[in-house]
Design a protein that fits this description.
alpha+beta; Phosphorylase Kinase, domain 1; 4 domains; 15 helices; about 25% helix; ATP binding
């Protein structure tokens, strides 16, 4: 190659070419970096690691570093420096990064219903599963009245009374599925199946309750896993609601009481102004939607607004049934509204009935739903508040105009309207005589059929408050007549939330019927007595079939894969060999005199499987057909009656076998001649697990620590220990990959370190975690509680998160687990190895348990 086609060597950190000023220094791992960059990297050293270590910028391996001498004590790379001086300095930014890892295959298991974006947006709004204490059955099927009310009484742990609004449902009848999603996973799967409009509406309600003090709190989302799997919006309920006050209104005969009513009316106006400022239009309100906070201010219960809207939709849809509403059916709707003490504007009712706008004059009325819609409702509520029990039933006669036929004469409609106005004026006459004529006048204007002719809420507020100056209480006051005619604002009654309840209930009834039908069908079963079903309905379209590999006579201790075989060891002192093509038993290796505790496959010129037992015996088995009866080689550690032999094995790429033993030592054996190279001392108890990654050996021990060892010279690099002294919990399994270390403990906790810093310490199991496996972002944990917990690790170092995706229930304690190329193997204490296959697909895409 010509010199001009080559590039000068450069520092992997600063990308500067080596010269007399940028001197390359050689690290113990063999890589080089410039002297100044190594000094700077050591200054940024993690406080959890010894000062005598440094992470190589090229291979990220922890290596020994001269301290306090610094990088000047490292040898110069004379050859690299001499070679770089032959070239002119090149532009380092044009050189590709040779250390960029190649894309890795996405792991196909487990199927996931939600995206990372959905989880990130909603994780903080999911209430814990135990956050709600029930007071009775939440999911009663015999709802009184209109039947679709989704608000029942219960309490949060903080003793806060709350109500519920159904927003979704998780299908709980899929009891035959392999993967049982976690509580958070079930909530996320429900959210992911929602359309964007519904999710945005829920998000808006959560936001407005968080920002606005006049809106009762919406605490978040809670899934009732014990009943029919409904996902609820949990809303604050206040005891001092307006509908519980008994007598509505203070009586217009008493001027002082009337003044008090008007002052409360100001509060009602301010509540609607707050909602309008957030872009919401109610469209339908009842007296039960309002309550008083601890300071006596009027607030709106969003949950009750949604329930009233759902009741209204249920009545309209039940009466209409897809055809034109006649006079009798119109009367039925009006009666139901009267019973609920609820008010709905004419334009909203027209929208629900899918009717064209009704003309009341030559030019026709504009019945578009907008902020003026709530003004009509506000007037009804205020009149009801001011007149109390004298509020006439004729109030609802105005709604009869909505149901008039379009070809009727305009004069007849005007007569109906004028009669209704006279009734309202007669009801408010005592209020006009008392000096509140302007209030009566503006309330009548609010009841105009055309929303564009109604005043703004801020105008009603000014009139009642007695203010004639501009009051910039919110952005609603800046709306002009043109904007009122537009369909602005998000109408709750016409939104997706109020249209969800009936569909959810119907789906629940259908699912319950199908489940009862399935219970009556005979159970055909399969090998291992596990039925065939979808892994996750709507995500995985393939069927899964469960098999059980039987052959061992005692607890499974270890699993490994290689040479087209699955190897399994057991307390029965044998190693079974299984074909990965059809999972049939191929051979049994016998010869150990003690329990076989660990396995490892070595893919050399002559592939071998190495096993180690509790007596210190190490056996090497040649993997060539036909499989031999006798081991290729066997040797022993020094026996000591005080210790329990070998517990873990690991093999490095340079031909070294590492054993973790009960004598607290890690021994390095040269596979070429099976001689002992060295012993690594540091742990204070049994070395229970070993892992290798990037030239570093990771060892976990019953002493609760994870130690790091350099494979170059077998020197200690770092120690990761318990956070709190005196709370030692044995490390039973370790996984290492790139810059991440995961340790599983006897107390059911896992700890995750990234770049030598502890990022997570979480408890997932109720007992010891005996087995840990990981592939891509999926983490599998199994142990004493007979359950495989599936976690997803998302995000990088700054925002890493561990999501509990779900669990796989087994019938015995899980003692061994292995994940290879998207295939998960699990060994149990009941002598069985379970295999779950996706029928009709290749092994590399199947799921094995």
């Amino acid at each position: 190659m010509k010199e001009e086609e080559m590039e000068a060597p450069e520092c992997p950190v600063c990308l500067q070419s080596y010269d007399d000023n940028t001197i390359p220094r050689v690290l113990p791992c063999g890589h080089s970096a410039c002297q100044s960059c190594l000094a700077h990297l050591h200054l940024l050293h993690s406080p959890t690691l010894p000062k005598t270590t440094l992470r190589c910028p090229s291979c990220t391996q922890l290596v020994k570093f001269p301290h306090p001498q610094g990088p000047t004590a490292l040898p110069k790379n004379i050859d690299l420096l001499r070679f770089s001086l032959l070239f002119q300095p090149q532009n380092p930014t044009t050189k590709p990064n040779c250390h960029t890892p190649s894309p890795r295959r996405r792991f196909p298991f487990p199927p996931q219903k939600w995206s990372d974006e959905v989880y990130a947006a909603w994780k903080d709004w999911v209430l814990p599963e135990d956050a709600v204490l029930m007071e009775g059955n939440l999911l009663k099927s015999d709802f009184v009245g209109l039947g679709s009310s989704a608000v029942m009484r219960c309490r949060l742990v903080e003793n806060q009374e709350v109500g519920f609004v159904e927003v979704g449902r998780f299908e709980l009848n899929d009891s035959d599925l392999l993967l049982e999603y976690s509580y958070v996973g079930k909530v996320m799967s429900v959210l992911s199946l929602m359309n964007d409009t519904l999710r945005n509406e829920i998000s808006s309600l959560l936001g407005v309750s968080f920002r606005n003090s006049r809106v009762c709190n919406v605490f978040g989302l809670w899934l009732d896993v014990e009943n029919d799997g409904f996902l609820y919006l949990v809303c604050q309920r206040m005891k001092n609601g307006l509908s519980n006050s008994g007598n509505f209104g203070f009586g217009v005969e008493d001027c002082g009481s009337c003044l008090g009513s008007l002052m409360i009316s100001v509060e009602f106006c301010e509540v609607l102004i707050s909602l309008h400022s957030e872009g919401f239009v109610c469209g339908c309100l009842g007296l039960s939607c309002f309550c008083f906070d601890e300071f006596g201010h009027v607030c709106v219960d969003i949950g009750e607004v949604l329930v009233i809207g759902r009741k209204l939709r249920c009545v309209v849809e039940g009466v209409q049934d897809g055809r034109k509403v006649d006079v009798a059916e119109a009367e039925a709707i009006i009666v139901e509204l009267s019973n609920m003490v609820a008010f709905v504007s004419p334009e909203v009712l027209l929208e629900l009935l899918h009717r064209e706008s009704f003309e009341i004059d030559k030019n026709g009325a504009n019945c578009t739903v907008c902020y003026g819609t709530d003004v009509w409702i506000l007037a009804c509520v205020l009149i009801r508040l001011l007149t109390g029990d004298k509020f006439p039933v004729e109030m609802y006669n105005y709604l009869r105009v909505v149901f008039q036929e379009k070809n009727e004469r305009v004069s007849e409609c005007k007569i109906v309207y004028l009669q209704w106005v006279e009734t309202i004026n007669a009801t408010l006459e005592p209020l006009s005589v008392s000096g509140y004529a302007s209030v009566c006048e503006i309330l009548v204007k609010c009841l105009d059929f055309d929303p564009s002719n109604r005043p703004l809420v801020i105008d009603v507020w000014k009139c009642i408050k007695g203010l004639n100056i501009h009051h910039n209480i919110c952005r609603v006051s800046s709306l002009n007549n043109e904007s009122r005619k537009e369909n602005v604002g998000q109408c709750l009654v016409l939104g997706e939330l109020c249209n969800t309840s009936n569909d959810l209930r119907n789906e629940a009834k259908i699912s319950k019927t199908l489940q009862e039908d399935d219970d009556c069908k005979p159970d055909l079963g399969l090998v291992g007595q596990v039925k065939v079903d979808n892994v996750v309905k709507g995500v995985s379209s393939g069927k899964v079939q469960c098999k059980v590999l039987q052959g061992h006579l005692d607890c499974i201790t270890a699993l490994c894969v290689g040479g087209g075989y699955l190897f399994s060891s057991s307390f029965d002192k044998t190693i079974n060999v299984w074909s990965l093509q059809d999972f049939t038993h191929v051979h049994t290796f016998r010869g150990h005199e003690h329990r076989v505790m660990a396995l490892v496959f070595v893919n050399e010129e002559k592939p071998v499987c190495i096993s180690a037992d509790s007596g210190g015996g190490i056996f090497s088995w040649e993997i060539n057909e036909p499989l031999a009866q006798e081991p290729l080689k066997k040797w022993y550690e020094e026996k000591d009656w005080r210790y329990s032999g070998i517990h873990a094995l690991a093999v490095s790429e340079n031909g070294c076998l590492y054993t973790g033993s009960g004598d607290r030592l890690i021994k390095a054996w040269l596979l070429k001649d099976h001689t002992l190279m060295c012993s690594m001392e540091g742990h204070k108890s049994v070395v229970s697990t070993l892992a290798l990654c990037n030239g570093v050996l990771y060892s976990g021990s019953w002493d609760g620590t994870v130690r790091l060892w350099c494979l170059h010279d077998h020197s200690p690099l770092a120690v990761f220990s318990e956070d709190i002294p005196g709370t030692v919990s044995s490390v039973l399994s370790v996984f290492a990959d790139q810059n991440m270390i995961i340790a599983a403990h006897e107390n059911g906790c896992i700890k995750i370190w990234m770049n030598d810093v502890l990022k997570k310490s979480m408890k997932f199991h109720t007992g010891a975690i005996f087995a840990l496996a990981m592939e891509e972002k999926w983490l599998f944990l199994g142990g004493w509680d007979k359950t495989v917990k599936v976690q997803e690790i998302t995000g990088g170092e700054p925002g890493m998160d561990v999501i509990e995706v779900g669990s796989i229930v087994c019938d015995s304690v899980i003692t061994a687990m292995l994940c290879v190329q998207g295939v998960l193997f699990v060994g149990c204490s009941n002598k069985l190895i379970k295999v779950e296959l996706d029928r009709g697909r290749t092994l590399s895409a199947c799921i094995c348990v």
